[in-house]
Amino acid sequence: MGPVSYGRKVNNAAGSTTSREEEIAFRILEQVLGVSIFLADAGAGNNKPDGAWTYPGGERRRGIVEVTSPPDKKLMSRWAQAKRDGLSQSESGSIPPRIGELHQVCAELLAAAWALDNIAKLRAEPADERHLFLFGRSHRVQSYFCRLSDTYEDGSFESVLDLVLPDGITDLWCRGRARREEPWGTRVWVARFQAGVGWNRYVADIDERHLPSPNASLADDRLDPQLRAPRDRSI
User: Per its UniProt entry, which superkingdom is the organism in (predicted)?
Assistant: First the structure.
């Protein structure tokens, strides 16, 4: 699996679209939860969670989500330089296997400063459900997310212990591996830990034409930009 191609973050004013990673997360949540998500931070800069929705039905339960990833500016800078130089984008070093410790990996990520900032943003917003959706920028982090979301079609199985989510957070999502499906599709595996329920794994299908272009400094766009039609979620 190649590096995650993060789209440019835009100021979500009226009429704007999501960033690429936000749109991927929103479409996964919409397929799993059966909801329609709009931009909760439209016109509010970075002070609000990324997305919000109301469940259908009489109870009108409200959910919100923040989409984020462990920051790795040095790695992104190296990958951007590699693209400019026409070289492959790679990482050096080894990945600790952490067998039987995937729950601890998640706990360590949630305790990091970047995660606490996003958790605080979710807590500050009134909602019945608060979801944190994580991407992995590096292969190291992404390898753990791939294992968390693996559906183990080969018959193997890796047990993952339950988490203790931060107060006020109801759901944690980890985006795992992705596989291209010609001509426009991408199949994405995702893990979800839900407070009071436990772990679940899902597979979602995403049409590349509905996504913003990847970050041009990290990856070439394999699609004619004129074919792209991301949804306006600001309304």
Answer: Bacteria
Residue 85 lies in a domain: yes
Domain count, the chain: 1
Q: Give domain status of residue 93, yes or no.
A: yes
Scored b (16 or more CB within 10 A) or e, 179-208 reads eeeeeeebebbbbbbbbeeebebbebebeb
Q: 42 in a domain, yes or no?
A: yes
Note the pLDDT tens digit of each residue in 58-79: 788 999 999 999 987 776 677 5
Q: pLDDT tens digits, residue range 120-176?
A: 999 999 999 999 999 998 989 999 999 999 987 776 778 899 999 999 999 999 999
Q: Are strands 129-134 and 62-68 parallel, antiparallel or unpaired?
A: parallel
| Structural contact between residues 184 and 208, judged by C-beta atoms closer than 8 angstroms | yes
Share of the chain above pLDDT 70, in %: 88
| Site of tokens 């009226």 | 14
Residue 213 belongs to domain spanning: 20-227
User: ∠ CA 208-75-132 to the nearest 5 degrees?
Assistant: 55
